[in-house]
Give the backbone structure.
Amino acid sequence: QAQFVESGGGLVQPGGSLRLSCTVSGSIFNIYAMGWYRQAPGKQRELVARITRTGSSAYADSVRARFTISRDNVKNTVNLQMNSLNPEDTAVYYCNINSGNGYLLPWGQGTLVFVSS
């Protein structure tokens, strides 16, 4: 059973940066594309960035040009560099597979990003 352990969240001022990391256990890392998702208070969870096994990436419009997703296929980690953060980025961030058909694995605990002055 795959497990996701997210880290790197915290409190940051508007305009600041954070780097999130997700360690993936199990054999699924080299099978699926991976995604970073977030859930803001009172909102549904949404996909913010995805990366294929070969490194092709895509982003939600709200984070494009500010966030960068990357993966290390040796260490089984997927990272999210977040720059120019604003209060609308406040959410719990999760990683999971991105199968393209909506199939997801059990969620990890996530990591909270709180953007506030």
Observations:
- Residues 42 and 91 are 10 Å apart (CA to CA).
